[in-house]
Design a protein that fits this description.
With about 325 residues, the chain is α/β, with parallel strands linked by helices. The protein has eleven helices and nine strands. The protein has a nine-stranded mixed β-sheet, sandwiched between helices. The protein is globular, with a radius of gyration of 18 Å.
């Protein structure tokens, strides 16, 4: 599997192909003014069967437009004020089953594992619907509402994700000054968006092989879904490219991540055919906070799996003095 993207020296300075719309900041300010009209409506139900290292809760809270969003909460046992990691799934996944996400409380860190609305029937279980319809769209989620920024699918997802951080910060036995967001692929793109949209509420970011970044280049270079959903849509709707690219610019991790201030750990795989390495470099180079990058020269979109997870654990411990 050869390297197919820009040479490494060009990747290290690549700034992305996306142009910021003039009203990007105003759009998101208006979005969250609307979102703040809905109370969080947080509900916690303890599981009947607990895990030794953690107290686990089935969580529901109000996301975008007040729609209910599901999550798992793991609190480390016998810790009075724990830092917390808010975790978002990769594309097609959901919060999964509760035993799949108990690593962090073993380390003394709370964890909130959040559904992405409508997803969770691909590789991992999700329990959150997306009640909003869409015009003609390619199968998947990337093109739902793509002709209108106000109705685009990821507008709702990003609001849900920021409100999940508000949930995390409101919890008893959680240190609201130590909140990390993390994920791989789509989950990394969501994490970058949250860090940029709520910079005062997030202290650390772990973004692994990030997606939802540098859309103009991604849809021309990626060889797999989910970016191919957009490419295939435009292959049919040939006259809508300009409108589609303008909509996507409001949700691009390159632009929104530039507003972030949290310290961040990125990873990029140089043979990644799903989220091309140049798109990850664009997000990394534009990122607004202190940052560190791990490059996996011979890996595809799997990144480095458990090996990178070990790096994340070590990095988190160092940042928070655990």
């Amino acid at each position: 599997m050869p390297h197919f993207d820009l040479p490494l020296d060009q990747l290290e300075t690549y700034g992305g192909a996306v142009a910021p719309p003039s009203d990007l900041e105003a759009f998101w300010q208006s979005t969250f003014r609307d979102a703040d009209e809905f109370p969080l409506d947080l509900r916690l139900e303890p599981l009947d069967r607990q895990f030794g290292a953690a107290e686990t809760f089935d969580v529901s809270f109000a996301g975008s437009m007040g729609h209910p969003i599901r999550a798992w909460l793991h609190l480390p046992a016998a810790v009075e004020s724990a830092p917390i990691v808010v975790q978002y799934p990769a594309y097609g996944g959901g919060r999964g089953l509760p035993h799949e996400s108990i690593l962090w409380p073993v380390l003394g860190v709370a964890c909130l594992v959040v559904d992405v609305r409508g997803q969770g029937a691909g590789w991992s279980i999700g329990d959150t619907a997306d009640p909003i319809g869409s015009g003609p769209a390619h199968p998947g989620f990337m093109t739902r509402g793509i002709l209108d920024r106000d109705h685009y699918y990821y507008r709702r997802v990003f609001v849900d994700a920021v409100r999940a951080v508000d949930v995390a910060r409101s919890l008893d036995r959680v240190d609201s000054t130590r909140v990390a967001v993390m994920g791989a692929s789509q989950g990394a793109g969501i994490s970058l968006a949250v860090a940029g949209l709520a910079p005062e509420r997030v202290s650390l970011v772990m973004a692994d092989v990030p997606g939802l970044c540098d859309f103009p280049r991604a849809i021309e270079l990626a060889e797999r879904d989910p970016y191919l959903e957009i490419t295939n849509y435009l292959a049919v709707h040939r006259d809508r490219a300009e409108v589609v690219l303008r909509t996507l610019s409001y949700f691009d991790g390159v632009l929104i991540g530039a507003w972030a201030r949290a310290r961040a750990l990125f990873s990029i795989a140089l043979m990644d055919k799903t989220c091309p390495p140049s798109t990850g470099y664009a997000a990394y180079n534009a990122y607004g906070g202190a940052k560190q990058l791990v490059v996996y020269r011979y890996n595809d979109h799997e990144g480095s799996g458990p090996s990178h997870q070990a790096r994340q654990i070590a990095w988190l411990r160092k940042q928070w003095g655990l």
